Recover the amino acids of this structure.
């Protein structure tokens, strides 16, 4: 790990397992997403190793899993849920983490598959395709009780090779609010670079400078939002952390107030 | 409610609606102005005001213009191209509106030549000159993620040695429509979606320098300023030719005036009075409704119709059919789904690409159809391949009117999610302010009110009519509207 130019050593990658599927039901793969329309909202699917998997439904910005993009490949990190009935013909992956890969891929510009009766949803989707029902689709989920005092540590998760996006706005606001509420004097920010063990045994590693860019961006954004009267410690790890198939959490920035 | 007698008076006075700077007429608390499909209503919640000496109405700079020059009450506090043409004819091109700085395609072009003002005369476009790269408050260049080349320059401004991109003060000229200086509480709200970080990107929101609070960043085509005060100050320095700006007291009066003016269509030639029926219509309802709340399909439609027009109406058959068409058009706007694809700052913000939604997905703010916050989005009005372009072939007589820029995103940043690393655009939009690749061609969406009074539409005036606007969306998103749906949607938009 480097701290503003200081060298920092990270343990070398451990010997990786043969493939992510060593974990029961684990499915990690890269594919073009598939969109299938239904009588209500479309399904998002992907093929892997001759099987069709259900990734997610179209919902809204409050969803814990948001759909990928046609025109881009998607990194799928999921676990097959064999007890769940198929949705839109696909085996349900749950939990699942989806990362849109940044570069365009013309091979993924596929048409939307038309709705077919056999693939229509057998349940009410969290949100209809048109206007909302007056609330965000996942706003009704039970929120944990507020902590007795503002939290001191935070972890921002990222898409593969990704930086801050729309969903980080709330998390950054929480950091900002906590720093102000605590009267924080210092903010320690540490960027990490991830890797992913795919089901075919290969390992995807994020681009080399991503950990630094992530850490510096978070500091820049907090400063830009007015958190200027604190001492920033910005560190990063250029070494990709070892992948074992359950790797989405490796792509992160940790933030610690008043370390 | 606007009285019928007032409407008649306004209709009778329709030929003389131009409000010249320094005119001195009082602006009544309620007024209506005839237009092609009915009449626009203007509501001044402060009642009648004396415009003599009022900085919105008086020519304060050297060029003879005032705010009202481009924000005419009869044009929903904006400026229609029909009004521009009338002024050209009435003044033989001498009205201060046609000032060299931004009323011509470029300041170096000859005065009095219609060709030198072609963008203003044909599309109602004002030249907006912006530094490139963008500058910080201290004048230092801001970092940018892209390079900009001029590919086509029909106005000659972007390649001009004094005014262009390679001039001593590198400048980009883009051409944009004036926006309504009315219903402004919806532009500046601090309600849903406004916070310290921009909900669509996670980047810090610009704060109001006076209050220190985050702003909605929902003003102007590129949100380069985000408060009414900053907009007035910016406009004074540029459009009014006042390099030293306006005094604080004048800014305060302008802001106060803009906060009390509401504009909406008040009467439709077919459907009749709009102010006594649906709760989403007319300027009084605009003034009364809360700002910055999101419409939905149950408790709060974007433009509420209520029950009034859902059933056959009493009155003439034509009036009843007009109201039925508007109600059908509302349902097309609100509930007709289609696949929205490759639109930056919509498909990129957690909805997926494509997303099966409706017009009201993007145009979701209750009563105005704006986005609730930081509403810049690229729907293809300025970016190729969707932006309107003159056909290229040996037989065409139509020439391209707008500049074309080639944008190349730097190798060390992610490509634009839907357009890649090389983008051709008539107006880089928000990217001229942010310097970001993924903001190229993203334009802050406009309110939907008073549309009948202020054609043409889109920031570059590329849709001459509401029908052309609907046709653009139909092509852009392969919606496949029926002819009936198109007519109904036009009828609905025309009464907002």
């Amino acid at each position: 790990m480097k701290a503003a130019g200081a060298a920092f050593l990270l343990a070398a990658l451990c010997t990786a397992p043969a493939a992510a599927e060593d974990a029961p039901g684990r499915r990690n793969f890269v594919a073009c997403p598939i969109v299938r329309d239904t009588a209500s909202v479309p399904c998002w699917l992907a093929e892997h190793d001759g099987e069709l998997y259900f990734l997610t439904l179209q919902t809204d910005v409050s969803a814990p899993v948001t759909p990928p993009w046609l025109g881009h490949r998607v990194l799928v990190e999921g676990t097959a849920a064999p007890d769940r009935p198929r949705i839109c013909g696909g085996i349900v992956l749950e939990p699942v983490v989806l990362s849109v890969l940044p570069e365009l891929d013309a091979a993924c510009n596929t048409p939307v598959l038309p709705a077919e009766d056999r693939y229509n949803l057998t349940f009410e989707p969290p949100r209809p395709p048109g206007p909302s029902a007056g609330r965000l689709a996942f706003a009704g989920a039970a929120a944990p009780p507020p902590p007795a005092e503002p939290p001191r540590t935070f972890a921002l998760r990222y898409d593969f090779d990704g930086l801050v996006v729309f969903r980080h706005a709330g998390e950054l606001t929480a950091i900002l609010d906590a720093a102000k509420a605590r009267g924080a004097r210092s903010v320690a920010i540490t960027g990490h670079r991830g890797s992913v063990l795919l089901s075919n045994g290969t390992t995807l590693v994020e681009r080399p400078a991503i950990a630094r860019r992530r850490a510096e961006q978070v500091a820049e954004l907090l400063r830009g939002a007015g958190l200027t009267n604190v001492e920033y410690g910005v560190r990063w790890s250029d070494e990709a952390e070892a992948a074992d198939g359950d790797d989405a959490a490796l792509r992160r920035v940790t933030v610690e107030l008043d370390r | 409610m606007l009285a019928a007698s007032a409407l008649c008076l306004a209709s009778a006075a329709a030929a003389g609606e131009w409000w010249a700077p320094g005119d001195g007429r009082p602006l009544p608390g309620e007024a209506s102005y005839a237009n092609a499909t009915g009449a626009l209503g203007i509501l001044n919640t402060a009642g009648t005001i004396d415009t003599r000496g009022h900085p919105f109405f008086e020519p304060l700079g050297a060029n003879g213009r005032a705010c009202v020059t481009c924000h005419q009450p009869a044009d929903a506090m904006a400026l229609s191209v029909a009004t521009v043409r009338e002024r050209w004819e009435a003044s033989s091109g001498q009205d201060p509106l046609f000032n060299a700085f931004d009323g011509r395609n470029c300041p170096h072009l000859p005065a009095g030549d219609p060709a030198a003002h072609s963008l203003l005369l044909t599309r109602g476009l004002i030249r907006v000159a912006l530094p490139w790269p963008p500058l910080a408050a201290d004048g230092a260049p801001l970092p940018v993620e892209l390079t900009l080349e001029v590919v086509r320059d029909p106005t000659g401004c972007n390649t001009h040695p004094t005014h262009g991109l390679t001039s001593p003060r590198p400048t980009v000229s883009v051409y944009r429509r004036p926006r309504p200086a009315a219903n402004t509480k919806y532009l500046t709200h601090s309600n849903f979606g406004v916070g310290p970080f921009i909900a669509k990107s996670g980047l810090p929101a610009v704060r109001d320098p006076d209050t220190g609070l985050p702003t909605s960043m929902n003003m102007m085509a590129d949100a380069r300023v985000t408060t009414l005060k900053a907009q007035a100050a910016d406009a004074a320095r540029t459009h009014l030719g006042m390099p030293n700006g306006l005094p604080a007291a004048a800014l305060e009066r302008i802001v106060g005036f803009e906060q009390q003016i509401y504009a909406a269509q008040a009467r439709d030639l077919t459907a009749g009075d709009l102010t006594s029926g649906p709760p989403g219509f007319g300027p009084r309802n605009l003034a009364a409704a809360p700002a910055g709340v999101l419409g939905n399909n149950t408790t709060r439609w974007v433009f509420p119709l209520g029950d009034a027009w859902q059933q056959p109406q009493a009155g003439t058959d034509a009036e009843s059919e007009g109201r039925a068409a508007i109600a059908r058009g509302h349902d097309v706007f609100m509930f007709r789904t289609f696949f929205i694809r490759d639109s930056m700052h919509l498909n990129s913000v957690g909805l997926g690409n494509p997303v099966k939604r409706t017009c009201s997905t993007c145009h979701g703010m209750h009563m105005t159809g704006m986005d609730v916050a930081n509403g810049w989005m690229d729907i293809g009005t300025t970016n190729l391949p969707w932006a309107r372009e003159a056909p290229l072939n040996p037989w065409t007589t139509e020439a391209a009117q707008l500049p074309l820029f080639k944008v190349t995103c730097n190798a060390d940043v992610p490509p634009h999610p839907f357009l890649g690393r090389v983008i051709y655009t008539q107006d880089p939009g928000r990217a001229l302010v942010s310097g970001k690749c993924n903001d190229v061609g993203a334009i802050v969406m406009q309110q939907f009110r008073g549309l009948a009074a202020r054609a043409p539409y889109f920031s570059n005036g590329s849709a001459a009519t509401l029908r052309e606007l609907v046709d653009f969306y139909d092509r852009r998103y392969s919606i496949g509207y029926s002819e009936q749906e198109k007519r109904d949607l036009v009828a609905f938009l025309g009464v907002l």
User: Anything to note?
Assistant: Chain B has 13 helices and 15 strands. Chain B touches chain A through 48 residues (CB under 8 Å).
